[in-house]
Design goal:
By secondary structure, this protein is of the alpha/beta class. The protein has helices at 2-18, 23-29, 74-82, 100-118, 131-142, 157-176, 190-207, 211-223, 239-269, 281-286, 291-301, 305-315, 322-331, 356-367, 389-405, 414-420; strands at 31-37, 43-49, 55-60, 86-90, 123-129, 147-151, 342-349, 374-382, 427-428. Strand 7 (342-349), helix 14 (356-367) and strand 8 (374-382) form a beta-alpha-beta unit. Helix 7 (190-207) packs antiparallel against helix 9 (239-269). Mean pLDDT is 93; it is low at 1-26.
Length: 440
């Protein structure tokens, strides 16, 4: 099945190139495009190829504007359509970009709307990216599907996300700018959240000028599960080089995105779900895979790490709103009780959704007794959702093999996935570290 689909796709591309057409041109010309609106106001979009292979992919998009999508990008869409897959996805309905309260229902509503037009598919596979990876993980617990593919997914859920991000933001503000009043939670507006993001970004940028600042940046990065690899073909081998990349990702990407994003999560949750009060920061660091790096940089800077950790623990006073905790626990957290085969794929260095989330998720699934249904695979690359189309399709075919045969065998192992990717795959054997800052 895998090899046949890949050969069909390659043959289609060769024919189109010989005819002077882009691959997407023919796929679009031979596909039916459908749109609609659900009763709650969410919109949906679907593309069904003329030569439908009977499989529908229910795609869940990531955090961002509530716009209906049925694939993560045009290249992937055209490749899937060219292989005969029907695609469908909804926008979700508000009130914010963190639309977990409605996303699963909206996705199944979109699927039902398309089935009224096309008939019932032979097979339905849910696939999500980033926040959509959490949506698809929740769909795997509801059932009514044949399998689930979660890529770069936020599978540790909203409560853990808010807590470990807050730990790092708190460390930056409290250790590097203690006299500056930087608001970290309960934002009243997007502008207020953006102001805090800008303040933290400046703090992290200015601190890079001194060894002491670099050591404290490394501590904050460790608490946020930030990898020591941001750019370049391979990760830096030395602790100082890793810290440079952590500072770059915090200043250039992470803080601006996640602090502003907290407003959207708080809006959906009805308050702040995260807390620092009662947290032992010495214990948090001890459980981090970056602990040795932090200790080495503190020694080089002549700083007392124990004193800084004691300060963070002593002064921590942010408490959660119980309503917000209950809301995210109900809408934005997995139980691990899978009902269908699920394949999770992650890059080994993901700045926005750390790969450590996969360790937490795998443990949750195993404790729920569903470990036989789950496989996790890792791409040896840096970046959030930084997969090649061939890598994604290889993962899809591995999941299809599990659905067809009833067993995983070795189809989700790195070697087999790279073979399925036609020599362009970067899958590696990898054991993700524990998620620092998990409270659930």
């Amino acid at each position: 099945m895998r090899g046949t689909s890949m050969r069909v796709l390659a043959l289609l591309g060769a024919i189109l190139l010989a005819a002077g057409l882009a691959p997407g041109t023919a796929a679009a010309a031979t596909s039916e495009h459908h749109t609609g609106r659900l009763p709650d106001g969410a919109t949906w979009v679907a593309d069904v190829p003329a030569a439908w292979n009977g499989t529908t992919i229910l795609y869940s998009h990531g955090f961002g504007p509530l716009t209906a999508q049925d694939a993560p990008d045009d290249e992937t869409r055209e490749a899937l359509l060219g292989s005969g897959y029907a695609l469908v996805g909804s926008s979700y309905s508000g009130p914010s970009w963190w639309a977990l309260a409605s996303a699963v229902d909206d996705q199944f509503g979109a699927l039902a709307a398309v089935e009224r037009l096309t008939g019932h598919p032979r097979r339905t596979i849910a696939w999500g990216t980033s926040m959509g990876g959490l949506v698809s993980a929740l769909e795997a617990e509801r059932g009514g599907l044949d399998g689930v593919l979660s890529t770069c997914g936020l599978v540790a859920g909203g409560l853990n996300l808010n807590n470990y991000q807050l730990d790092g933001e708190y460390a930056l503000a409290h250790l590097l700018a203690p006299a500056q009043d930087v608001k970290l939670v309960r934002f009243a507006s997007p502008a207020e959240a953006s102001a805090s993001a800008a303040a933290l970004t400046k703090i992290a940028t200015d601190a890079q000028a001194t060894p002491a600042g670099q050591a404290r940046i490394a501590l904050a990065a460790a608490l946020m599960n930030e990898p020591g690899w941001f750019t370049g073909p391979t990760p830096p081998a030395d602790y100082a080089g890793q810290e440079v990349q952590q500072q770059q990702e915090l200043s250039q990407l992470v803080l601006g995105f996640v602090v502003s994003g907290r407003y959207q999560i708080e809006l959906a949750a009805g308050g702040n779900s995260a807390f620092t009060a009662g947290v032992d920061y010495r214990a948090l660091l001890a459980g981090s895979s970056h602990a040795r790096q932090v200790r080495a940089l503190y020694r080089a800077a002549g700083l007392d790490l124990d004193a800084d950790l004691a300060t963070l623990t002593r002064d921590a006073d942010i408490r959660p709103d119980s309503r917000a905790v209950r809301t995210l626990a109900r809408t934005s957290a997995v139980t691990g009780r899978l009902r269908v085969p699920t394949l999770d794929v992650h890059t080994v260095a993901d700045q926005l959704v750390p790969v450590e989330q996969e360790d937490w998720y795998g443990d949750r699934v195993r404790r729920a007794g569903a470990g036989a249904l789950l496989r996790q695979a890792y791409v040896g690359a840096t970046g959030h959702c930084a997969f090649r189309t061939s890598e994604t399709i290889a993962a899809l075919h591995a999941l299809e093999s599990r659905i067809e045969t009833g067993r995983w065998g070795d189809v989700a192992e790195a070697r087999r996935l790279n073979e399925a990717a036609g020599g362009t795959g970067r899958y590696v054997r990898f054991d993700p570290p524990s998620l620092t800052g998990a409270r659930r």
